[in-house]
Amino acid sequence: MIIVFEPKATEAQVQHVFERLQEWGFTPVLQEGEQISIAITGDSSALRTQTLEAFDGVQKAVRLKEAYKLVSKEFKPEGTVIELGDVKIGGKKLLMIAGPCSVETEEQYVSTARAVKKAGAQVLRAGIYKPRTSPYDFQGVGERGFPWLKKAKDETGLPLCAEVLDVASIAKTKDHVDMYQVGARNMQNYDLLRALGKGGKPVLLKRGLSGTIKELLLAAEYIMSSGNHDVMLCERGIRTYETATRFTLDIGAVPVLHHDTHLPVIVDPSHPAGKRSLVGSMAKAGVAAGADGLIVEVHPEPEKAWSDAAQQLTFDQFEQLMAELKPVAQAVGREL
Amino acid sequence: MIIVFEPKATEAQVQHVFERLQEWGFTPVLQEGEQISIAITGDSSALRTQTLEAFDGVQKAVRLKEAYKLVSKEFKPEGTVIELGDVKIGGKKLLMIAGPCSVETEEQYVSTARAVKKAGAQVLRAGIYKPRTSPYDFQGVGERGFPWLKKAKDETGLPLCAEVLDVASIAKTKDHVDMYQVGARNMQNYDLLRALGKGGKPVLLKRGLSGTIKELLLAAEYIMSSGNHDVMLCERGIRTYETATRFTLDIGAVPVLHHDTHLPVIVDPSHPAGKRSLVGSMAKAGVAAGADGLIVEVHPEPEKAWSDAAQQLTFDQFEQLMAELKPVAQAVGREL
Amino acid sequence: MIIVFEPKATEAQVQHVFERLQEWGFTPVLQEGEQISIAITGDSSALRTQTLEAFDGVQKAVRLKEAYKLVSKEFKPEGTVIELGDVKIGGKKLLMIAGPCSVETEEQYVSTARAVKKAGAQVLRAGIYKPRTSPYDFQGVGERGFPWLKKAKDETGLPLCAEVLDVASIAKTKDHVDMYQVGARNMQNYDLLRALGKGGKPVLLKRGLSGTIKELLLAAEYIMSSGNHDVMLCERGIRTYETATRFTLDIGAVPVLHHDTHLPVIVDPSHPAGKRSLVGSMAKAGVAAGADGLIVEVHPEPEKAWSDAAQQLTFDQFEQLMAELKPVAQAVGREL
Amino acid sequence: MIIVFEPKATEAQVQHVFERLQEWGFTPVLQEGEQISIAITGDSSALRTQTLEAFDGVQKAVRLKEAYKLVSKEFKPEGTVIELGDVKIGGKKLLMIAGPCSVETEEQYVSTARAVKKAGAQVLRAGIYKPRTSPYDFQGVGERGFPWLKKAKDETGLPLCAEVLDVASIAKTKDHVDMYQVGARNMQNYDLLRALGKGGKPVLLKRGLSGTIKELLLAAEYIMSSGNHDVMLCERGIRTYETATRFTLDIGAVPVLHHDTHLPVIVDPSHPAGKRSLVGSMAKAGVAAGADGLIVEVHPEPEKAWSDAAQQLTFDQFEQLMAELKPVAQAVGREL
């Protein structure tokens, strides 16, 4: 952190800030020169630039390094590889998570599990709880779906990824799923993040609709600092003024995240696309940009789906997508 | 809802959609003309346009009315007036909620309570839990602050408004505060909203950083449909590309909300301002635009505040703000 | 400008930047301390932080002051008052510019001129050129409207404000209008800005749909540095994700601009509103926030308007708006 | 266009709209049913939904088809292939436009021309005019650069692509360049677009910082309807709240544009990246998403560049990028 004073700042103003910093337990160093400044030695992550700029005489406070600790590249330069049974996430082989938006019926679910397994997916979406904008929309089958999840897993061997909406569901689903997903609306639900930090299973953390990359990383920091280092970050489109797509896939977030953190980065092409004809291009872009995996919605009869009908792929479309993704993965030195 | 078919849509395609709608329990009406369309009689709030547009032959599905029920102006054309002790929210008299961003110490809190009471505030902020972007930032004093809350209330008689971050806190704070606040990050934390619907106290629901007005209203619908009709909506600035202010105060949301809903609308000028020199203009704009109240951050020594240092007003500044707001309130037919 | 080096930057890297700055004609000053930095004495407005951050060893370059010169508050702390005939813009009395979106016919135009004059407007909109998103939309009556402009001015004495879309129109309209408007789409049409800098008439410069406040000020700097200091800045709503209003009126821009510049600030409530029922609230908010004037669309029969039909006020509505605005203006120490 | 009336709309209100539409020259067809509506037969592109929604009794006006004519896929389903000398744009082979952000000196320019030619580029950037946010920034070498352009072209045979900022420059550069570029700030400079419609050379039209896909297509419609059908559309990143990249590359725009129009789509990875380490990922994503070409900034010594220093690639980096792009192009059935 560097705090730069206005040219006309008085000695007393500088002194005042200096002493306050000492009181707060920091080690300020005065830097004289054309414009007087104070540098802070050591960790200043708890200080906010806004707080410093509220002092009289301060022109600008500049954070030189983000407040990332456990998520930062420096913490683990070699990159994290998460193990989920036999699946390794973050290595050369790309992760493919697939399945329906919502678990609806046993038949719908188990048939989808078989189809995505056959096409090459390694993890199965297990959406039994659905966060919905309107209280009158379908809210998921809930625990009623547990036997169907079991059947799908028994038949295919695919580990299950379930979104949890609240702390209570973590315990409820503990024995029924293999990894958790935090949806976009809950990226800053800190209560939930802390509980997942103690949840003992890998977490797929989705970026909020208007979450910055920095906020996404600090949300991951909540999980990691609570004890769980198996976190995947998911770019799923952000909210912008453009309405031609459901959300704007921020493809640049992929290399930015790979630069800032050691955590694996997953791209969700289904939600930004909003309709199935756009999913393929976005999926290929995600792989080409360097994503470590994708999460894709697949349904036996999308038009009958209880949620996200327009963006789910049919079995055939998913199989074709997998075939198209293979050469793109190879082109960037990965495998699918 | 009207579903318009493409000019070249086949009869079979139209028939297919018609039957599906009937199966789902709706009452479709075929409308022939230049372009065939299907209108849906009665409540179609559970249908998504996206689902309908996924059918072959459909050109566009148009929702003619939003899925609002309890929040809608039609439900209560005369407007809601919430009673909080002697305070009436939504009537001629404007509501002024004030107090520090965070409860820090007994002295800081009680002195602020006295000052804002004296200046004319009717409700006291009681921020004991703080949602913070970084896990390493100050997270609020928590239950440790209960005695200070009591003392402040005993001395001033002001009812207390506390943000709750999770379901558990509702029960914990039940006997200590008078109304709840849902922060911007939690606008779509449905678990929390439902619990507040049964919480028995008025709720101030803040708009999310990238929440649409429609989503804000549907979030309120979650609370109301769970049993609690005492909801205030709060415009507190949205996230845009502009960084000259902390957030962009969407002043147009005030008349839009007054058009769509009977619920009181509160403006928070402190968070969009981000620095105290901008709070006054935004507060006056909020009142002039028709807000039913304001929520403002006040601190005995803002530069020492543990959070939001730059945007909190001093006691003197708050007193001056109240003086400046009075004639603006009168100019638009309100009282302060 | 301060350039901060990484803790591990080598002496050679620092030396390299230092010399490059000297070559470029700046006066760098080395500041040693916890983290080495270089401050630049004197004017560094031509340097971009991005350029500096491209050097090896540089951690961050921070501009301490924006590159504003002529537009800056420092340049003219007392505030600019523009004289347009008898009208004074930027003083205690608020400016009211009103008139139809487009000049359509003689009768439509002259009747509107009379009505807005009667209601208290001081300047008349004179939209003869219309920038339109589609080439197939009505593009304005063009020079054909000159006689109608003359008649309206002769009858009412109101000075005329016309949007110009290109350099050629400045000369063409020279003898027919009294001030120019730069529309939102042209905020960064530098060719046009420079020409208006030599145009000899006051300019109302509208903020672009996604223009930052900084870019707006630098656009004004283009006009001023070309010789014309009579510039008004106009906040007219920015493009965000919210679609409930046509644009999001950035009300916070009013106090920010008043802080940064001496130029008068005008608010356009018509375009962000998008429909007439919202214009009043936004207009009042603009005045309460401290705007020096408003620009409002008025039409004899809005539903027949050739452009912006939904947001234009009728004569009666405009008269009522003026009546409602008066007490708000007084409440903030202004006159209307 | 379909105009749906409110359930309580009176017959007189419906009749009124019907007659007005006839007066305006449209062919309205009344559609009775659950909710009365009026469909408009034939071309209704000149009508705005906003205008219709301003009538009493109208609940919603819905455009069923966008107002695209010449740019629409229907107009030319087979896709446009633009010929620029030997270069074919829009076919199987991808277009690579490369070169410095600004033409600076003869040596800088000619050496870059040689390097990008050698690496496989087919068109050379020829930035002699530079639109700059501040009037005090470097504004391009202007016509002084013509001899350098000639030399570069003579040596390499590469056709030249130059941004034009105003109508006058089209004539000035006519004999010196081979295709024109419209920069993001000028996407809606209709005067310029119309002039380019008569300019006789292919045009690369960049999307505005906050331009919607629809506005981009209508801007192209301006050029095409003025006589020039050789238009390429360029996605170059949009302005959002995220600041980790300079702009947010809207990768989803590529498939959306390919769906809506027959015009070739070019991706600019340099401007959204903002720094060279991110250019590669974005370039690969662009190709994988289906772009017909890329435009990339290359400079002999980026750190000495007079503009966009941080995002330009060195010669070696560009050569490496070309090598990395080849397999990605092949993976999606294209050549580079």
Summarize the model shown.
The structure is a homotetramer of 336-residue chains. By secondary structure, chain A is of the alpha/beta class.
CATH architectural category of the largest domain in chain A: Alpha-Beta Barrel
> What is the count of β-strands of chain A?
14
Order of helices and strands of chain A: EHEEHEEEEHEHEHEHEHEHEHHEH
Helical amount of chain A: 25-40%
Coarse structural class of chain A? alpha/beta
End-to-end CA span of chain A: 43 Å
Say what the CATH topology of the largest domain in chain A is.
TIM Barrel
Physical arrangement of strands within the biggest beta sheet of chain A? 7-8-9-10-11-12-13-14
Give an account of the 3D structure:
The structure is a homotetramer of 336-residue chains. With 336 residues, chain A is of the alpha/beta class. Chain A folds into 2 domains: 2-62, Alpha-Beta Plaits, CATH 3.30.70.1140; 82-331, TIM Barrel, CATH 3.20.20.70. Helices cover 34% and strands 17% of the residues of chain A. Chain A has 11 helices and 14 strands. Chain A has an 8-stranded parallel beta barrel, surrounded by 5 helices. In chain A, strands 2-3-1-4 form a 4-stranded antiparallel sheet. A two-stranded antiparallel ribbon of chain A has the order 5-6. In chain A, β11 (203-206), α7 (213-225) and β12 form a beta-alpha-beta unit. In chain A, α10 (276-289) packs parallel to α11. The longest helix of chain A is centred in the last third of the chain and has 17 residues, at 315-331. Chain A is elongated, with a radius of gyration of 23 Å. The mean pLDDT of chain A is 93. Chains in contact: A-B, A-C, A-D, B-C, B-D, C-D. At the A-B interface, α2 and α7 of A face α2 and α7 of B.
